[in-house]
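BACKBONE GEOMETRY TOKENS
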Amino acid sequence: RNPPVRSYSGATTMTASTTTTSTPPTLTEMIDIPDLQAYPKGNNDLAHKRKMEQWIQQASATKESVKSFLQQAIQNENERFQKDQARRQREIVEFKTEIANLIAMLETRILNLEQEMEHAGTEKEERIGTSTRRVDAFCETIQERIVEANQMIQTMNNNMNPMAPSAPPLLDENTANVEPVTVEIDANDRFLCPILKVIMEDPVIASDGYTYERKAIQRILNTTKVSPMTRQKFKSKLLYSNIQLRGEIRDYKK
């Protein structure tokens, strides 16, 4: 007969066809192996002979059963090992794939950051260049204004001296309608407008450094824009009141 199968402290009852658990039992824990030393003893009679034959049959059956179970157990263990190896191999492949994807993502992110840094650097250089050009243009304009102001100051200083140079009258269709002021002919020459040749009421200094009657020089600035004294174009339309000369003219008229 087949040897009985013994249960052990696990989740299932072990047989030759079932798989083993994480802690497989030994063969002696699963199968009741007969005590071969306890073979029957007795007289050498026919009955004793039959008992010995029965014991030999039982021992042979047990041996075959143990060998069969052992082979099945080895086969199950190999299958379990192969499955575990296949599972581990799949996990390794999946892990490698995840690592490769992560590396690709990091490389893409690094490339994007490098491009953003390069773009930001280009924008910074453009902003700096634009700001520098604007500042240079502003400084150049300020320098031109400073030069003009110094020239006007120099001219004002020259006009404070008596007998400033005069120019021949320059009348055209724009200044012919300006009504002259009726005053004595013997007026001081520096009180006379170089354009109208009459004493000025509102003397102003133009960008060429000379003093004119405001209405007369404004008409020149709105038309030809050429200085009647230097014969060159005015650098600016700005006019500055010659306060000192206006006060002297008022005193002269008194």
Summary: The first strand starts at residue 203 and ends at 205. Residues 115 and 139 are 36 Å apart (CA to CA). The chain is about 55% helix and 5% strand.
